[in-house]
Amino acid sequence: MGMTGIQILKFLPKTNCGECGVPTCLAFAMQLATGKAELEKCPYVAEESKAKLAASAAPPVRPLTVGTGEYAVKVGGETVSFRHEKTFVNPPGLACLVSSDEAEASIQGKIDRFKACQFERVGLNLRPEMFALKDASNDPATYKAFVQKFMGLCDASLILICPNPDVMAAAMEVAAERKPLLYAVTLKNGPKMAKLAKDFGCPAVVRGDGNMDTVIKLTENLGKMGLKDLVIDTGTREPHRLYQELTLIRRSALATFRPLGYPTIVFPCEMASDLDNETLLSALYIAKYGSFIVMSDFQAHSLFPLLLSRLNIYTDPQRPMTAEQGIYPIGNPDENSPVLVTSNFSLTYFIVSGEIESSRVPAWLLVQDTEGLSVLTAWAAGKFNGETVGTFVKKSGIADKISQKKVIIPGYAAAISGELEEELGGWQVVVGPREASQIPKFLKTL
Ligand code: SF4
Questions:
Q1: Is the CB of 408 under 6 A from ligand 1?
Q2: Element (H, E) at 430
Q3: pTM (2 decimals)?
Q4: Do both 238 and 185 map to the same domain?
């Protein structure tokens, strides 16, 4: 756990000068403790105190990134055990296992499904990000050629699975640019594999033998070597025991036991006899506390629920999902198309836009920022009234796109119509249906 405000206060100058933007050092300390202020805002903290406060401020689970570009996966950075305490930060990467001795058609099938499994949901593109390339040859040239060929077929982020440092070194000649995750440093290959990760600046997995002491010994030794970007595989493949170990790792990390303050990798592909059970285990470890999850295959029926589960668990429960404020053209609208206005609560936006789309009547949808509140709640909170909607409509620029100044408001906000007409001056305000499901009928008869 980080320091409390009172503990932080001991390191501040206690002059209450107010230069940090709050009136007292205590208030500033409280803000630091809750992550609402940056230490740099106080120009008078001594260097020694800065170092102590910075160490305390480092997240208990070290953040790290695997891969580059659009498929890069950032994990770690977590600060709590339970999502209701504070949001989980970085969702786990989902990887598909491919072996170097696998049939070409099977590999191509996995790549095709990886590319096809992309799902639009609440304005986000849900998809997997990674492949785990396993060496079955123990031959440097063979594994290198396999990795190189795979990279030519797919841009995914990579986990390179190979116990032999010499074989891994050959693969890294072609794969280093993708910043892969190296699997794995063990007691046996430790120094050589660790040096490889350090030389290439890539994160590496520490693989234990089912004994947590081994993991701790390895992370401590590698830390002393300067290798900080580590991922833990405890070595356990028994689901319940692994669940306990992952919980222990998270709790230890939160108690600032640094040797276990790292992201984790789990292998449902080695723990289940079929994809259904793999999917169930993957769902378990998405919730608690896998950072990389390696499956034997990507199939839409298994992947979609996992992606949704990941989205839900890693969405901040205290912040509603929102759509961006702006003008959304639906179905190629022109200057004669109707204009509807709604709130930016994601669900509202998607239901309303979906109903407009299904009406096949081209329209302009104005989405107003209501801080993620639905229409009725926003109206009750004073965020969707004649003044706010009127100001938004005027500033949106929709007037330049249409010939008739007419705007349709949700039926639930009928009470604002008079005030809105006054605010807009010269616009006609039409009250639309209360329920989104009535929009197609309403638009067709408008
Ligand atoms: S700037 Fe520093 S010394 Fe001044 S009130 Fe803020 S924390 Fe205290």
A1: no
A2: strand 428-431
A3: 0.78
A4: yes
